[in-house]
Design goal:
There is one protein chain. A hairpin with a 4-residue loop joins strand 1 and strand 2. Helices cover 43% and strands 19% of the residues. The radius of gyration is 21 Å and the shape is globular. With 315 residues, it is α/β, with parallel strands linked by helices. The two termini are 33 Å apart. It has a five-stranded mixed sheet.
Length: 315
């Protein structure tokens, strides 16, 4: 038995967007056509893949298992198509990204992108998100991946949510009766602002014991047991542990990751990287709706604008 990629693509799109109707617009197919494809796939595997949730379609246990395989299969398919069929893309892309994501998020993304588009050169610069966005406005970057303190309204690429967690040293501890020792980035850092607001809101005293503008310095300070910090769950590095409820720390709100570029001057190389990141942003990207589809819609509308701006580079 073979699983057709067109059925898998419709299945993955419906799963990511949480419904057939929003998937139809992205896929360019009618609702009956997409519904029929899902039914055909369920018939092939002899299992129900979706169940109706309170707000959207949800994956069954079997659907979740297939979803993980389907994304890998489509990724390999798209990589092969990019290498063998699509026109070669060349050029330079100057990418701005926060320090911690350069170490965790970026390597696998760039490895797969380089395999598909070996003629594209990527220059990476790390900085605080607030600085990256300012420098993008000044024309220094082609593409910026940035954290947002609140839901962004101007993200022109894609957006997804990241869990923010407290982390400390493996085997380390801190006194819960005195001020919380904090290791943070300088003013302007999204994590820093959220940490201080959350501690102040619960009436917990704190003191900043160590400040570093880059993630390697923050990680070293935490690993040495000097204090604790907050990071996106997906960026928790070796030597650090997530601190649980027993530490009586306030819950930190999720942070939004947004991808930004200027649609008016996007190149084919930048478009390809935007497309690649949107497809490979990881499991958190599929969780973006969190009760509504507004954030996921940012991804769809941004990608549509990118396609129009490049004048359909697939043609």
């Amino acid at each position: 038995m073979n699983l057709p990629t067109d059925l898998l693509r419709s299945f993955v799109t419906v799963a990511e967007l949480g419904g057939i109707t929003p998937a139809c617009e992205l896929l360019g197919r009618s609702q009956p056509a997409v519904s029929l494809q899902i039914k055909r796939l369920e018939d092939l595997v002899s299992m129900a893949l979706f169940r109706r949730g309170k707000r959207k379609l949800e994956l069954t246990e079997a659907g979740q298992r297939l979803f993980d395989y389907a994304r890998q299969m489509l990724s390999l398919n798209d990589e092969a198509v990019a290498r063998l069929i699509r026109p070669k893309v060349s050029g330079n892309v100057h990418l701005g990204i926060p320090n911690e994501f350069a170490a965790s998020f970026l390597p696998s993304i760039l490895r797969h992108f380089a395999q598909a588009h070996p003629e594209v050169t990527i220059q990476v610069t790390c900085d605080l998100s607030v600085n990256l966005l300012s420098r993008l406005a000044d024309g220094e970057f082609d593409l910026v991946l940035a954290l947002h303190d609140r839901q962004a309204t101007d993200s022109s690429g894609c957006a997804w949510m990241e869990d923010v967690v407290w982390v400390g040293a493996q085997g380390g501890s801190f006194g819960r009766d005195g001020p919380v020792p904090l290791i943070v980035a300088p003013e302007g850092c999204v994590y820093r602002a959220r940490v201080l607001r959350a501690l102040d809101a619960m009436g917990q005293s704190w003191r900043i014991v160590y400040t570093s503008p880059n993630f390697s310095g923050i990680r070293a300070g935490v690993a040495a047991g000097l204090g604790i910090t907050a990071v996106a769950r997906s960026t928790v590095a070796d030597g650090l542990k997530i601190l649980g409820a027993q530490h009586r720390l306030p819950r930190l709100p999720d942070v939004e990751m947004g991808l930004h570029y200027d649609p008016a001057r996007i190149s084919s190389a930048v478009y390809r990287l935007v497309e690649h990141i949107a497809a490979h942003a990881g499991p958190t990207a599929t969780q973006a709706p969190r009760g509504d589809d507004t954030r996921k819609g940012t991804l769809d509308s941004g990608m549509n604008r990118a396609q129009q701006a490049v004048a359909d580079p697939l043609a």
